[in-house]
Amino acid sequence: MARVARTCLRSILKIVNSTLGLVGIAMILYGLWMLRVWKRDMETPSFDDFDYTALWFIYTFLSIGATLCLITCLGHISADSSNGFGLSCYMVIIFLLLLLETLVAADILLNSDWEKDLPEDPTGRLHDFREFVESNFDFFKWIAMLIILVQGFSILLAMILRALGPNNGSKHDIDEEYTSARLPLINPHLQTPQYVVGEPRFTTKNDAWNINK
Fold this sequence. Notes:
TETRASPANIN-19-LIKE, transmembrane helix, transmembrane, Tetraspanin/Peripherin, membrane, 7 helices
């Protein structure tokens, strides 16, 4: 029964964890699209002396997407092996990510001038992204809530799977079969063959002489 529960938890954790991977892939694709648009604009003369370090928003977007993909890989490996250390690292990383997202969301909601705290973005990608989010605010609101729920559920599943421990059932079954196969050779309670104890019979010389005749 524990093996079936462990297998189900592994599958559910992998499915839930894949949501973060999909978000990371979407962010990487969007970051590559922004980079492509910027390279197209670089062909104009007004961008001849452009500072490449000003692409901080695009680089940050790509880095966050790659980080989510790495976290997804770690979650899949930890769920498949049910390793306690791997699951602990996965839970800590998800918790820190959830805490960081909460702090960023609180700063955006409570601070109306939050854009002034960020470096200047000459590419204009930050402004375009903000307008895109504001025009589809309801959609992004549900996406954000889904990501938060997925992260919390992932932590809960990882905690349960870590409490169950790794699956060593197959190894124990092999050991039991091997022990059962060896048991008759080392069991001291096995019945020994019955011997009839009687007086020894010696061959006399006359019997030996009759046999030779």
